[in-house]
Every structure is written in structure tokens, then in C-alpha cells.
Amino acid sequence: MAGRIAASTMSGDGFAPAYAAFAALGLIWGSNFIFTKWAAVLISPEQIVLMRVLFGFVPLAIAGLAGGALHWKHIRYVHHFAVMSVLATAFYYIAFAKGTVLLLSSVAGMLSGAIPIFTFVTAMVFLRSEPINARSIGGTLLGFMGILLIARPWDPALGSVDPAGIGWMIAGSFSVGASFVYARRFISPLGLPPLALTTYQTGIALLALLVTTDLAGVGAVFADRRAWLGLVFGLGLCGTGLAYILYYRIVDRLGAVAASGVTYIPPVESLAIGALFVGEPVRWRDAAAMGLILFGVAVLQSARHARSQIDGCQT
Which distant-in-sequence residues (6+ apart) come within 8 Å of 298 by Cβ? Predict the structure, then answer.
């Protein structure tokens, strides 16, 4: 009986805000590729990531201190925060920035749809509680088919696809995909506020980037209003600070595999942005691919719900 009540609560009050966060995070991440492309004209990918993390961390730290979310007692979990700073911030951002520089922004965004594939594989190995079943497998494969149909690297109309760019996007996808699983297994059980988790994660990443990034010429980005606005507000405040508050909420509520379905939204959005702002072609296959992606998300989410209902009945 208690299990049924818990499942009912999660499917109602708990899941509604999580789905709102899911949609918001997908939209925020979908715009990151064009902002990166604008800034890359003036500064290096490493400098883009440094500035992005800086402008994401500062308001988070202020809000965390003012709201009392940060505590010295959390330092005992610093090893977990350090792992997340690499998987979900520093390396992930650098890999995607390098990939975006070498590819069309829409192609880079569409390739990011491989993230749930890596989340599924790592969850299958490390998270026995996740719904690894026919639905989750089918949802992941449907989404991946949609990504391939959109990206279609074999189509010369999209221009040449740089293998190095693809490699960086795959590396970044694996990194953030694994982070969903790590967060679910090690971070969510800590019960810490998302604001605190995000602040610690970005703060450690910022320290590492300050030590390893060449700062020469980094101020050049402020010569272009579009570039610095996209970097500060699009990539920093929203794409880093707000994004990871939403990230921890959906991982906690929906689970790693279902939450990683948020990464099916950016490919669709990046395709639309590429068409509107860069003039890249949109064909009937793109509409079909969007349908596959969204249906894959729905199947992944239904797998999570089905598992919750089974657990509730057994309890």
C-alpha cells in the first residue's frame, strides 16, 4: 500500500515539475550550439568554456550563499563533485565546443542526440534499478534513428562532416551520458539542494579551467555584442547555471535513462535554429526524424512509469 501511495505521488506532484524542467533544459541546451559558434569566431573553444563556466558559477555562488544552500559539511562529498565537474562540465563542454567549431551548428546539435545511447549502456552496467527493458531499448533506438535521419552525414547538401568534429561530439556525448548515471547513483542519494550541487560542480570546474586555459586574447569576445551576449547569458547564466539546477531535478525525479531523453530536444531545436539563422536546408525527412525523436522520448518515459507502477504493486 505504501508503495502504491509513493508511486502515485511521484507520478502526480513529483513528475509534473520534473517534466517542466525536462522541457526547459532541452530548450536551453538546444540553443548552446549557435552561441558557441558565434563566440568561436573570436576566441578558442577552451576560452569559451572558461567564460561560460565563470558566468554560470558567479550568480550560483551568490544565490547559494545568500540562500544558505552551501555548507562546509558538504566538503566530505568533494570527490563526487569533482567527478561531476569533469563528466558534466569541463570535459563535456570542451568536447562539444571543439566539435561545434568543426561542424555546422545544426549537425553538432543533432549529433548530441547520441547522449542517451551512452546513458543507456552505462545505466545497464551500473544501475540495476533503472528500467532496462524492451521499452527503454526501443525508445533509445527510435531516438537514435531519428538523430541519424536528421544528421544524414552522407548527404552532401549539408556540407562536409569533419571526422574530428564527430569524434569530439561522441566523446562529449559519452561524458555527459555517463554523468547522468553517476549523478543518479552517487549524487541524488546525498539529498543536497540542486543549487548547492551545481555551485560545487561548476566551482571545481572553474578552478581547473583557470589553471589549464590560455587567457591570451580572451577579451576579444566583447568586441561583438551578439557573441558576448550569447556567451554570458545563453551559455553562462542559462546554459550552465540554470541548466544544471534543472539537470539535478530531473535526474532525481525521472532517473538517469529517462532523464537523458532531454537530450533528444536539442537536435530538433538546433535544426530549427540552423534553418532560421544560417539558412541550412530542412526537408520532409527532418519532420519525420522529429517524430521519431519525440516518440522515442515518450517510450523512454513510459518505461520509467511502468517500472514505478510494478514496484508499487509489489510493495
Answer: 139
